[in-house]
């Protein structure tokens, strides 16, 4: 079946072409859709690509029954409801690096235009006014630029501002004094930045914690005559507070590329002569648009071809080398989960995943997600995937524990998954045998050696002469061929387990007959 991709905003052809050239991929460009149209057609698509204007809300995501991936051609994902995407198992990818340079350059352009009143003076000239007194500016040299948020763009702005011979003071929760000093800038608390800067530029994402970061209280703490730049996100600045601070002359200039509601026209801030603005142009360069379109489209193609996406937003990111090494364990882990859930008679309450041996040198959370997916998918079906596995487990009040030890437990690598229900605990262990692939090597306290693949019958019985024979005859009577058989017991005449690999699915009616045989405690037919 074709993979259908909807693109709702203008993105560079460099990216679109790569999608269009891929066999079995259908691309639809629909930049004129309103919210209602988008809600009505979204179920037809496997992927959606947006920039910053399309609001991908829960109301869009919930009817998107076929949607698997959302690509954001840019950095900020505040226009995408990530919780709703995660809950619905939809992967979100962005293009975080492609527009860094352009956004940093735009910030510098705004800073310079602001300090020299360039837009205002140009506007006056266009109205035949030759006014040199009105537009006296200030130099940047030796002024202090306060940067709030020293990530990709903030750091690039810092380097450029140093080039203008400005002093730079920055606050970012991840910034250390050492790092700041290596960059030739000063490390400060947010208060220190507010109090000492002549110009303040914000470069954080828009989050709950950064919403109205520059509010009345923040403006009060600033130096009189401060100027403000926002090329990050509307909403980081409280617009009413900024308006008041300009009216009171505390703030003498503001350069805004973004406002809380976009597109913004006839906003009260735009009426103030101290405010200059651009219509969200930070990433609007040929280079940035090519970069982000190519990055996001390549990630979508990686997804289609089953590869590792580079810029996942709602999944841990995996590097290629790491993925190559851990991928065989993904298969084993998911199969262990699928296997184990068949042994549980009640709903799971706790899942404990224990890793032992060499595998513990890897970051294991992606593998744990696969195992949980394997456990949940028997009851939740294809709806569960590695993106929403943890969320769904959480919603079902299943506690997840993970432990690891580098000490080898009989195998160079061992994964043990334990499932606790109200009345029982069952566990299964698996390993990757060098050159031989995945094996289930333990079920509860019994040792086995079974490939986690195909049709398996697990029989728990009492170790008595004749049990195996009766099983074999019953299966033969139903034309079920036994391919391999494994038996283990706790002691002579005690608890025993039998694992039969058979050539076809075993019907319920046969299982019931097996259950009726003497000395049988339980029987499960597992299709992996
Ligand atoms: N105007 C545009 O067209 C345009 C273009 C690109 C990016 N952006 C926006 O620019 C912003 C920065 O992008 P980026 O690529 O540098 O992101 P980034 O993730 O690399 O950097 C963001 C930084 O903000 C810091 N931060 C988070 N909370 C903070 C807080 N409370 N106080 C101080 N720092 C905090 C983070 O630690 C991080 O270092 C984003 O909002 C992005 O959407 C806008
Ligand atoms: O799509 C755009 O041009 C805006 C992109 C920018 O805001 C971003 O966060 O990457």
UniProtKB/TrEMBL annotation:
Residues 456-528 form the ACT domain. InterPro entries: ACT-like_dom_sf, ACT_dom, ASB_dom_sf, D-2-hydroxyacid_DH, D-isomer_2_OHA_DH_cat_dom, D-isomer_DH_CS, D-isomer_DH_CS1, D-isomer_DH_NAD-bd. GO terms for molecular function: phosphoglycerate dehydrogenase activity. Its EC number is 1.1.1.95. Pathway: Amino-acid biosynthesis; L-serine biosynthesis; L-serine from 3-phospho-D-glycerate: step 1/3. Keywords: Amino-acid biosynthesis, NAD, Oxidoreductase, Serine biosynthesis. It holds the Pfam family ACT. It catalyses: (R)-2-hydroxyglutarate + NAD(+) = 2-oxoglutarate + NADH + H(+); (2R)-3-phosphoglycerate + NAD(+) = 3-phosphooxypyruvate + NADH + H(+). It comes from the Bacteria. Catalyzes the reversible oxidation of 3-phospho-D-glycerate to 3-phosphonooxypyruvate, the first step of the phosphorylated L-serine biosynthesis pathway. Also catalyzes the reversible oxidation of 2-hydroxyglutarate to 2-oxoglutarate. Belongs to the D-isomer specific 2-hydroxyacid dehydrogenase family. This is D-3-phosphoglycerate dehydrogenase. The lineage of its organism: Bacteria, Bacillati, Bacillota, Bacilli, Bacillales. The gene is serA.
């Amino acid at each position: 079946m074709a993979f259908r991709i909807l693109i709702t905003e203008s993105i560079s052809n460099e990216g679109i072409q790569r999608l269009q050239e891929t066999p079995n991929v259908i691309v639809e460009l629909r930049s004129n859709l309103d919210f209602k149209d988008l809600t009505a057609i979204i179920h037809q698509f496997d992927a959606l690509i947006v920039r910053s204007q399309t609001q991908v809300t829960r109301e869009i995501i919930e009817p998107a029954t076929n949607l698997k991936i959302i690509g954001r051609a840019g950095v900020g994902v505040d226009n995408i409801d990530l919780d709703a995407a995660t809950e619905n198992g939809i992967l979100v990818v962005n293009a975080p690096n492609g527009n860094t340079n352009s956004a940093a350059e735009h910030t510098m352009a705004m800073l310079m235009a602001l300090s020299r009143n360039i837009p205002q003076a140009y506007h006056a000239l266009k109205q035949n006014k030759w006014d040199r007194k009105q537009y006296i500016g200030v130099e940047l040299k030796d002024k202090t630029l306060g940067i709030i948020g020293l990530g990709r763009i903030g750091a690039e702005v810092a380097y450029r501002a140093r080039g203008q011979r400005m002093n730079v003071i920055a606050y970012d929760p991840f910034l250390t004094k050492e790092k700041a000093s290596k960059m030739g800038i000063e490390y400060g608390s947010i208060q220190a930045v507010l109090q000492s800067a002549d110009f303040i530029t914000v470069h954080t994402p828009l989050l709950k914690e950064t919403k109205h970061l520059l509010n009345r209280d923040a403006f009060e703490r600033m130096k009189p005559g401060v100027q403000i730049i926002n090329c990050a996100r509307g909403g980081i600045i409280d617009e009413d507070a900024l308006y008041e601070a300009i009216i009171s002359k505390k703030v003498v200039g503001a350069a805004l590329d973004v406002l809380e509601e976009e597109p913004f026209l006839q906003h009260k801030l735009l009426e103030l002569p101290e405010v200059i603005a651009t219509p969200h142009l930070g990433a609007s360069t040929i280079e940035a648009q090519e970069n982000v379109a190519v990055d996001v489209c390549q990630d979508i193609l990686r997804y289609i071809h089953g590869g590792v996406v580079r810029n996942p937003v709602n999944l841990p990111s995996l590097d290629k080398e790491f993925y190559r090494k851990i991928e065989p364990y993904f298969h084993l882990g998911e199969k262990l989960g699928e296997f184990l859930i068949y042994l549980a008679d009640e709903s799971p309450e706790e899942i404990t995943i224990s890793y032992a041996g060499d595998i513990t040198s890897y970051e294991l959370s992606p593998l744990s997600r696969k195992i949980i997916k394997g456990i949940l998918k028997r009851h939740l079906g294809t709806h569960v995937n590695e993106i929403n596995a943890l969320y769904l487990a959480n919603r079902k009040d299943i506690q997840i524990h993970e432990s690891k030890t580098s000490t080898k437990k009989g195998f160079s690598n061992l994964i043990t998954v334990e499932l606790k229900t109200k009345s029982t605990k069952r566990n299964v262990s698996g390993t990757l045998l060098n050159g031989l692939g995945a094996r289930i090597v333990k079920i509860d306290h019994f040792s086995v050696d079974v490939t986690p693949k195909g049709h398996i019958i697990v029989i728990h019985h009492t170790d008595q002469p004749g049990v195996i024979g009766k099983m074999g005859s019953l299966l033969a009577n139903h034309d079920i061929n036994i391919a391999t058989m494994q038996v283990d017991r706790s002691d002579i005449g005690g608890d025993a387990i039998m694992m039969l690999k058979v050539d076809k699915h075993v019907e319920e009616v046969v299982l019931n007959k097996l259950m009726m045989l003497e000395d049988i405690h339980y029987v499960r037919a597992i299709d992996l």
